[in-house]
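Form 7-S
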Amino acid sequence: MKATRLCRPLSRASGTPHRTRRGGSPTIRGPKPSRRRCSCGTPLCCSDRPSPSRPPSFRPSAPVRRTSACRRDRVPAHRNGRGDHARRTTDAASNTRKTGDDHMHASLPRRRTARLAAALIAASLLSALAAAQPAAPEDTLDFYAVAPDLRHYVAGAVERNPTVLEAQARYEAARQQVPQVTALPDPVINFTQALRSVETRVGPQLNSVTLTQAFPWFGTLELRGRVAVLEATALLHHYEAKRRDVVARVKEAYYDLGYVDAALGLAGEEQSLLEHYETLASARYATGQGLQQAVIRLQAEISLVVDRRYALERQRAALTTHLNTLLDRPAEEPVPIVPPPTRPAVEVDREQLYRLGERHRRELRAASARIEGSEQAIELAEMHARPGFTASVGVTNVGRRDDRAGLPLPPDNGRNAVTLSVGASLPLWSARYRAGVEQANDELRAYTRQRAAARNAMEMEVQEAVVRLETLDRQIDLLDTVLIPQTEEALRATETAYETGQLGVLELLDSERTLIDVRTMRARYLSDLLIALTALERAIGTRVPLTGRTP
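Output:
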């Protein structure tokens, strides 16, 4: 029997080499040779891998050489200090690097997606926060002032009045609520230490770190921001209303001071006139042409005028204290004499005033802001019944395996595990959410009625102020055109008759008192007219149009 030799090609079916004769043709034809190749691309011979019939621990006695075409490994394995175990370790490391590269390339799209999602969330939060910003308060207040010092008093009161500053502080505090309600809740980080490590294929799990972030339902943060902005807007209008209140109170105190100063001036004129009459009566009594009763009556009238001046000075001190309180100044700080005010000319159009009140009345605007906020609050309460979400990312610290049996270690030995989890809350208690929606609806009805009441109050105040303005304007016209000229003429005639002895001192005192009363009445009417104009400005929330000075 002729000897046979092993050929390099192997049979695919059985894995056994073809049998050929020495110098003859092969007696057994097998399938095509194996297509297994080296890492450099060169086909491997059949002796480079163990036969299926051989056990895994089989080692050839003779040194195994690679084909000469494989230039990477021309040195035999037993000469370069590496056997099959070293080659397997190299292949495992190569596979590990290949797996790591594949994992890295596969994680790139996930990283880009995570970054894009984070950027979109941040952009949406920033846009919601930028849009959710209340308006700034007005820098200047438009109102009618009869004198420059009145504007000075009003500016000081608006800047320093404690009531105004309190309303401003509440508005500023409400503004700080906006970034709080539009921000995500703080993330939670957890650390877990295994008291007894869990053994896995790649090594024991020692500890883990998890970062969790909660997310409300889509649009919840934006709605919270809108509700907070509308509440801050309502407090802004409340702050502006307090400023208007202080302006009106300062103007009323100023106009009352103007009346008191005018009355004090008239009382001084009356006292001087009565003292002149007393001198005349004393001279007539000294010459025997008059009676002592006339002198005594004039002296009594002078005392009454002095008493009236004391009362007016006491009233002025009270008004000065009130004005200083509004200006946040010491109560005893003196206030200069108010110059005589000029009479304004006002053309009143009720329909125009109602429209201005609808547009500028701060209480109406605050109620409108709260109505809009309640509508947003209803939508927010309905959104609370929807689930929230949580996203968690964790890293588990895995120790390295040390297999003492000499078995090959897994390629990912000691690799840390990375986890990603997503959760959602379950809004099961529907009664709670229904109660929140009903509460928001009740608040909406309350603010709607509050706005209706504020509108009715505005119309009532406008009507009252207009009636007072028209009435006082007609009364001042009557005084200027009829009563004051008549009383002045009557006093002049009475003085002439008294000097000639035709009339006595009683008639003279009556004429003089009537003139002083009419002039004092005119000062009171003018002050009331300016106060009514102030009330009308307060009712509509801005300056009354077509307001000027009389020619």
